[in-house]
Amino acid sequence: MTSYFIRRFLLIIPTFIGVTILVFTLTRLVPGGPIERMLSEAALASAGETSTVSDYDGRGGSMLSDEQLADLEAYYGFDKPVVVGYFEWLGKVLVLDLGRSTRYNDPVWETIRDRLPVSIFYGVCTLIITYGVCIPLGIYKAIRHKSVFDNLTSAVVFAGYAIPNYVVAIFLLTAFAANLEWFPLGGFVSDDFADFTLMEKIADLFNHAALPLIAYVAGSFAFTTMLMKNSLMDNLAAEYVRTAVAKGLDFRRAIFGHAFRNSLIPIATSFGNNISLIITGSFLIEKIFNIDGFGLLGFESLVERDYPVVMGILVISALLFLIGNILSDICVAIVDPRVKFGSGESGQ
Amino acid sequence: MALLEIDQLSVAFDTEGDTVTVVDRVGFDVEAGETLGIVGESGCGKSVTALTIMGLLPKPSGRVQGGDIRFRGESLPNLPPERMRDIRGNRIAMIFQEPMTALNPVHRIGRQLAETYALHQADLPDEAVYRRTLGLLEQVGIPAPEQRLREYPHQLSGGMRQRVMIAIALASKPDILIADEPTTALDVTIQAQILELLRELQRETGMAIIFITHDLGVIAELCSRVVVMYAGRVAEQAPIEQLFAHPVHPYTRGLLASIPRLEDEPKTMLTTIPGVVPSIEELPSGCRFANRCPYVKDLCNRDAPELLAASQGHQVACHRWREVDAVALEKWGS
Ligand SMILES: Nc1ncnc2c1ncn2[C@@H]1O[C@H](COP(=O)(O)OP(=O)(O)O)[C@@H](O)[C@H]1O
Ligand code: SF4
Ligand SMILES: [Mg+2]
């Protein structure tokens, strides 16, 4: 088992290289690179507000000489072949240098680091709320299958699933922030956050987070709740539960002592995927609530052709995804003793 | 008073607006220490009868529609749930057909064995529980029991798992063990070992066994008395020698004729009773065996035969059993 997980960790390396090579090559192939982007923006600025964006794909007039352009390309490494460029980039990543943003000229790592607390806060809260609600709800729905409560909650979670999260976000913002003014209109914390006491800080944080969190989780209940419900119902109907009841166990103990752990197996399987989702966030929700998280950063970087940032985000999300999947397998191995990863291990 | 009395028991399931009676006025007694066989084709209501005794009918669809089950004179269907839990797994234990799925895959064998003690003998110290679980595994013939206690079900073969199931059932020294086709899912050699084990355990413990099977051959090896069921009803009930030597219900005769015997001429095909069991939804109002019975008369289609005494300890539900007996037609022989 241990050797299996060591192998899995080693496999991260080729997978990671594959994913990053792919995206790196794409950034080189897609027209309208960061330099063109910067030039057109510069042209836009100098031409004043009357100028249209139509000269976007041009050189931005004759602002720069070919020589200066070549310098710029060399500075960002665009003058080299893709392969050379990639390995230079990878070499830097290995020493934890993600390069500089072409947009802000800040180190990419600093840009990402600034967003990290926000994204992790929302990601972890989403994860906790999702599992904290879905698991008990799924259990209760399984026990009360076909009851009014079961049907009603099914309708609610599926409605949440069917409505796009940005629609939920806009609705919440309009109703509870703009009209009723119960919550702030946006932002991660208040401007004078630094002057608050600890309790005020916590209150302020959650005051700001309430609406975006609802928008985040509204769509995520359906999948895990129904997974939990169906999985538990399958297990309640399983013969080993009947054996347990035949021993004289009451229904409650049969559920929590026997069926519950078995029904967590599919939940554990889907856990890894959710881990990597937490950090990516949603640019629409972040945009609507004016939160500076990963979602917005990634989206803007892509639009602005800020490829070093795009690659930096890719590094982090790819690693999270790969590690998340291994964590998932570890979770499954913990709940299910039948799982023996890899062949030739003991106990087969 | 018999240890367990099944008295005119009817069990129904509610399915999509419909109620189907799958066990219809079934009655038999189980005496302390005896082995009673229940035999019948798949779907005739054997498992439902067993589950009803255990109070394990699927809820809310299944329910006792009529009749009674009395254990030491106490009516089980009317017991409060807490009291029934004292009997279930303690005084009456049950093992199932599929040893591969009947054990919890994520718990160690030791824990699943010890659970019975935790439930019914909560004051037993851990050390004693451990020694007893070890003893149980030895008793059911499991080699290296210390190691097995620490293993998970998937690490055991089907036969070993069924032995574990038997050990779990034995833990509280029950008065009655209900074995619902415990060997059906196993290889023939393993099947013989499990039957031998049950026989031995019964001799040691003196518990009664209700042995359910679709295979009359297995019944012959183990049971002292047999209840033959057909389509939710009792067709015939007799001591084992009586039933084999002198069956009087046409269905029993058909079943017996379809057992391959060593002394028989080798046949190219097994004799089987022609026709199919009527489906539970469209049971005839008369005798349920009428559509397959070579002795059928008008009366059979009109009235359902009652279970009546044919001789001492021998009951049969057939209008024409006397004539059948007298004619002793060998309709199914060769
Ligand atoms: N949970 C259930 N719901 C509806 N019908 C059932 C259920 N369980 C069993 N039955 C029906 O009851 C009849 C008897 O089944 P069973 O006792 O399992 O037969 P067997 O003699 O093979 O053990 C069958 O017709 C079966 O379809
Ligand atoms: S009652 Fe009639 S149909 Fe039924 S078994 Fe007897 S002879 Fe056959
Ligand atoms: Mg059955």
Give the spatial strand order of the biggest sheet of chain B. Answer: 6-7-8-3-9-10-12-11
Helix content of chain A: over 70%
Q: Count interface residues per chain for the largest interface.
A: A-B, 21 and 29 residues
In CATH, the architecture of the largest domain in chain A is Orthogonal Bundle
Counting DSSP E segments of at least 2 residues, the number of strands of chain A comes to 0
Summarize the biggest pleated sheet of chain A: none
Helix content range of chain B = 25-40%
What does this structure look like?
The complex is a heterodimer of chains A (348) and B (334). Chain A is mainly alpha-helical and 348 residues long. Chain A has 14 helices and no strands. Chain A has helices at residues 2-29, 34-47, 66-76, 82-94, 108-143, 148-162, 165-179, 198-218, 221-236, 239-246, 251-280, 283-288, 294-303, 307-335. Chain A starts with a helix and ends in a 13-residue tail after the last helix. Chain B has 334 residues and is α/β, with parallel strands linked by helices. Chain B has a domain at 252-334. Chain B is 33% helix and 23% strand. Chain B has twelve helices and twelve strands. Chain B has helices at residues 46-54, 81-87, 109-120, 126-139, 145-149, 158-170, 188-205, 216-222, 240-245, 250-257, 298-302, 321-327; strands at residues 4-15, 18-30, 35-39, 62-71, 74-75, 92-95, 176-180, 208-213, 225-230, 233-239, 308-311, 314-316. Chain B has an eight-stranded mixed sheet with strand order 6-7-8-3-9-10-12-11, with helices on both faces. A four-stranded antiparallel sheet of chain B has the order 2-1-4-5. In chain B, a hairpin with a 2-residue loop joins strand 11 and strand 12. The radius of gyration of chain B is 21 Å and the shape is globular. The model of chain B has no long low-confidence stretch (mean pLDDT 90). At the A-B interface, helix 10 and helix 11 of A face helix 2 and helix 3 of B. Magnesium ion (MG) is lined by residues 46-47, 180-181 of chain B.
